[in-house]
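TA notes. Do not distribute before section.
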Amino acid sequence: MLRLSLLLLCVIVFTSCQKKNTSGEMRSPGEIAFKANCQTCHILPKATMKIDAEWPYFVGRYGEKAKLSEEKKADIIAYLTSHN
């Protein structure tokens, strides 16, 4: 009974800590990578803070520091430019 209670408590805590996507849309790989990797060092910038041509430079620069793969960097750039 105690194990079941602890398991239930863990499930409740885990699910309450997750952000829910209330729009019903699937998140793109770029959005997932952007939110998972970029906010570990700073507040997430808005996609409109740069023009499309600037994002590859910034994502490349900071992506290298974060040791992101070329695929993840490309996904993030695609996400930012599609929301700009």
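Switch to the second chain here.
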Amino acid sequence: MRSMIEVRNLVRDYKITKKREGVSGGLVDLIKPRKDILRAVDDVSFDIDSGELVGYIGANGAGKSTTIKMLTGILTPTSGKVSVGGLVPWKNRLQYTRHIGAVFGQRTQLWWDLAVVESFQLLKKIYEVDETTYNKQMGVFNDLLSINEFLHQPVRKLSLGQRMRCDLAAALLHQPKVLFLDEPTIGLDVVAKDSVRRFLKDIREDQGVTIILTTHDLGDIEQLCKRIIIIDQGVVHFDGLLDSLRRQTGHRVRLTVDLATELHSTELSKLTAGLPVHWETSDGLHHQVEFNRNEVPAAEVIKRLVNALTVSDLHLAEPPIEEIVAQIYRSNSQAKS
């Protein structure tokens, strides 16, 4: 069975001009400019099945946005192949745009001075959406995003959270097979982020939309994505399940300990002497210790603490995804040096 998105050996180069110093250097540049090649995406390959929601993450300049621009047909690659639903994005543009939706951060696709509903009506005509489908989709969007309350307001008067909800609805109005999301929760408060995340979960389950999500908010990744692709300096360094990434970077866990009596972490270190654990330096009731479960059982650490102290609460958790991704970047840097 063919994947919804197929990417093979994708490369994108940019020519950049190297400026010489001084007035004389500027004159030479006019006659004989120096060009360098910057490779933004370097031999990237992956498949995404229909209905998958995949997180595509990396630091600034890693190549995320360049990849997405090629997948949406905005950019033509230097080399490589892309097929989305059997179409080549930069070759079959008119046909292709009818099968995809896109939301790019804080850049709205709605008409700034028009009422929201007028923007939807225009998009309905552009995408040739029939009345039945339009009414059905608008009903779904109101149920999941509660957009009816501001449909008749000009887009410019919406809050960022309201506008993002409308942008998501606009991107999905024509029932696309694939949705590209570039920083969809950037700048949103906690409540608005939660609303967007719940909507994406529901719309993927209900309509089977294939979603690629790029974001710096790793909370989005943890809550929405089972699979992630990590790109750094244009190269894919990980492609797999989030749980697999956690296992790959070690079985480190963090134990949070709340005490009934204030104590310095050095006293806790004495209780776990001989065990390969690391206590964060702190003083008071709240303490944290990290260790590898392959090296020491959590039960042994907990037993030593509860046998010697009055413990109010204990919480065992894996490190946040931010730390795991940072570890991947550090490993890559060390491998290159």
